[in-house]
Amino acid sequence: MPLQSGELGLRTLSILLSLLVPAHPTRSPDCGGILTPSGLSYLAEVSKAHAEAVLRQDLMAPTAPDLMLSSPKSSRNQITSVKVAELSLSLIPDAGLRLSIDVDLGVTPAPATGPLSILADFHMEMNPEGNLELVTSACKPTVEEMQSTEEMERSTPRFSLLRDLGNGGKEETEAQICLEVSKFLLSPNEQLMSLTAPFPVTPSCQVQYVPLAAPMFSKQGITISLQTTFQVVGMAIPLPISPVPFSMPEPVSSSPSHLTLAFSEHFYTSLFFALELAGAFNMTIPSPLTTATVAQKITQMGSLFQEEQPVVLQAVFRSSPRVVLEEGKASLKLFLTVHMGTGAPAFQSFLSVNMDMSAGLVLSVASTRMMISAAVTDHPGRTTMTAPGRQRSRFLSPGVLSEGIFLPHISSFTYTDVNIVIHKVRKKTFNLPPCYV
């Protein structure tokens, strides 16, 4: 329902007043995630095809045979196939990741070498644009030398990939292979950039997850701290300071989950604060009452309205909505002033009632979105008069969060097999095995 001019004024005033809220002098997280060793193994498994494609594209390129000279006088060796036999990722506590990859190369004529093995170390840093970026720290390719007979050595030029690949010898070859390894990171880094993209919540409200620092690496996994920012009509909203410092929950070693997300109580309160400023709540509510039916209870109404007119309800927040997390449940507290009046030609209030409402929140996850639905469970009025019971749920418009709110994610990523746990310690935890599409 379109907002009336009075409501637009209230919305504008709310936004202007919100800008007077002092920003936190230092940035602090209100949510975060942990990629577990199990999730890292999953990433390694689905990355084999990408690594193989990168190696195959360059090592089997038309110009590649020029680098396959075992000696200036020998015949050329041609790489005819590239297959990644093994690829694993392991954690280096307080440092980063280690990539171990075994590559089977088909070479003509057949070489006297075994598989190509590559060890590379990565760390993660924040670039000047505020995006996370994987960077190669070290790279070491090796080839297992196979024993050959004297007859083989006399009849066939010995092919050693690292010693003779390229006119520059071993060092040039290692540099060439490590260059291919660095190309592995192009796609992951593009995906990491999508993590910080603004996601729509409503047509006028956006959410963005901002990394506060490079992730921490430990035996338990990769931990990243995020700060949520909201924009309403393109303008960032300074949010109130969280009364409780946020910290990630301790990883459960026995958990099979790939990824654990945690959201604080402050995150949810900030979300509904942003929705309030964006005008996402239905604030003008039709009523079955008329001035004549109200006059049956309030006799003065007869002298105020000579002709029968429909009665409408208009709700204004006395203070911002607040989310409370308890053990096993979450609730939304609404603090409203409901004005009862007529709407033509302009809204004219004849009665105001303070009303506090409590709505239970039901959380679920679909693809990359968290779905939040609400059911009014309590509405203790501050006066003896309250809004008609049939109108209670109308204060929570069915259009609010009908599409859900985007969770932190990168492109080509979905959440599956979601387990949601709500803790009283003001943490919200998801155990989310991821699936790449």
TrEMBL record:
MF (Gene Ontology): lipid binding
Q: Which residues form the signal peptide?
A: 1-25
Entry keyword Chloroplast: no
Q: What keywords does the record list, in alphabetical order? A: Signal
Classification via InterPro entries:
Bactericidal_perm-incr_a/b_dom, BPI_fold-BPI/LBP, Lipid-bd_serum_glycop_C
Lipid-binding serum glycoprotein C-terminal domain boundaries: 253-425
| PANTHER family to which the protein is assigned, alphabetical | BPI FOLD-CONTAINING FAMILY B MEMBER 4, BPI FOLD-CONTAINING FAMILY B MEMBER 4-RELATED
- Could you identify this protein by its name? Lipid-binding serum glycoprotein C-terminal domain-containing protein
What taxonomic classification does the UniProt entry list for its organism? Eukaryota, Metazoa, Chordata, Craniata, Vertebrata
